[in-house]
Amino acid sequence: MENVGLVLEGGGMRGAYTAGVLDFFLDEGIHLPYVVGASAGACNGSSYVARQRGRNYKVIVEYGDHPEYISYKRMLTHRQLFGMDFIFDKLPNQLVPFDYEAFQKQTTRFVVGTTDMETGSPVFYDEFPNRESLLKVIRASSSLPMVAPSIRYDGRDLMDGGISDPIPIQTSIDHGNKKQVIVLTRNDGYIKGRVKGGWYFNRKYRKFPKFAETLLDRHLYYNDQLQKVKQAEEDGSAFVIRPQEPLKVSRIERNRQRLHNLYTQGYEEAQSQLKQLENFLKTE
Length: 284
Known about the structure:
A hairpin with a 2-residue loop joins strand 5 and strand 6. Helix content is 48%, strand content 13%. It has 14 helices and eight strands. Helix 1 (15-27) crosses helix 13 (256-272), helix 3 (55-62) runs antiparallel to helix 13 and helix 5 runs antiparallel to helix 7 (131-141). Strands 1, 2, 3, 4, 5, 6, 7 and 8 form an eight-stranded mixed beta sheet that branches. The model has no long low-confidence stretch (mean pLDDT 93). It has 284 residues and is of the alpha/beta class.
């Protein structure tokens, strides 16, 4: 399966759907040679590359309602809705250990998307010399505006990669992949609307005007990429797995049963398309 890219959309806790899809892939021995994603897509993708089946389920579903994971009180006191230290330190290093050694042993090219606050443009990383660098880049990729601080890395101030490149299909193509397996966390027909409160974003990020501009235009990038995905699906160069119905789970969902159901939905919907996926991967 050379020149096949796995493109993973983010979406916060909606990533439970992707976790189900990827665990099905691991159960079936579907190991794609290239993985690119941002935010929750990068979080899910790292465990997939390390072949840690079930790890994403534990992180998202079993710990999703933990008070240190999402806290409105912390949002009011520290302007942090997600407990980033908990998610990117305590979870991967103590509670649900990430197997960095297994990750490093794989030949899979793993690419993480971030957004450079100075330029407002996407920046991708695919080299992680140690465990700390990998976790830091994924943390940067997952740092949502307004609810998390930016991350300083590689001489840049970085934030959520889903802002500037939410569905990085073009990046996968640019890296030489002729076919794309794309996992979305929105149903077919979804269209993203313009973000409200633009004046506040401009004020909040007045030191980074290009970032604020990218943030306000995010819906345009997203909807344009959805069109690219649709076109690739129609011309046979992409196989898309997406929720078959609109999700009832939000980006900041905490209900364990809903998250479990979404994980199961992802697993079962991927399972139902196995034959089609196998045929797609076999064709030249």
